[in-house]
# Entry
Amino acid sequence: MERRKFIKRLSLTALGICTVQGLGTRLFASGDSGTTVHVVSSGDTLSHIARRNGVSVAAIKRANGLNGDLIRVGQRLRIPGNGSGSHLAAVRSEVDVPNFNASRWKNIIAHHSATGNGNAAIFDRFHRRHRNMPNGLGYHFIIGNGTNSEDGEIEVGPRWTRQIQGGHVRSLAHNNNSIGICLVGNFENTRPSSNQISALKELVLYLKNDKLGGNCRFLVHRELETTLCPGRHFPLQEMHRLFG
Ligand SMILES: [Zn+2]
# Structure
């Protein structure tokens, strides 16, 4: 029942907005970002808290000006974002594929899913079953919105792992040379979350600068084809200020 509702919603939006395709295995989870606060409860130790939050004990001590390891129940601790601050950190090893084909990628194209919810596995299923896309998930990356994956979680799709063409735009030429990143959400109606935007920034900066030496363009879908994607609430100008 749940699923039928899902598919229905996806079909509606897929008609008019974004051409998603779909194979996809859900590969990875991640996701933390800025500083959060942890209130110490009975039995907590710095090392437990550090492990649970994916940061080092030293980082927590630094963020709170602690000299020793003593903490007390009720104490509020600032928990810094993990190592690189980042949504990307958890999947960086997956982004760094051994078969990376730098010469292939000329563009990075951002999309929204035009659905309220979803994740790589759901879009993959939809595209395989309803769009007959044997390679599944048309995007190379999905950035979750907290519905079917974490808010800001980056999922790496099989097309990235395999370094094969996308299925995220109509143009064959652009599918062949463009990395597709899809943020879950319908940004005609709502804004992307701040976690989604920071994950997107991190991912695009890493792909563009670190992986491709700056040699690629950042675009959103509607700058290429007639579509509303990625919606009027997508922060287009901010992204172009950052990425050119
Ligand atoms: Zn799109």
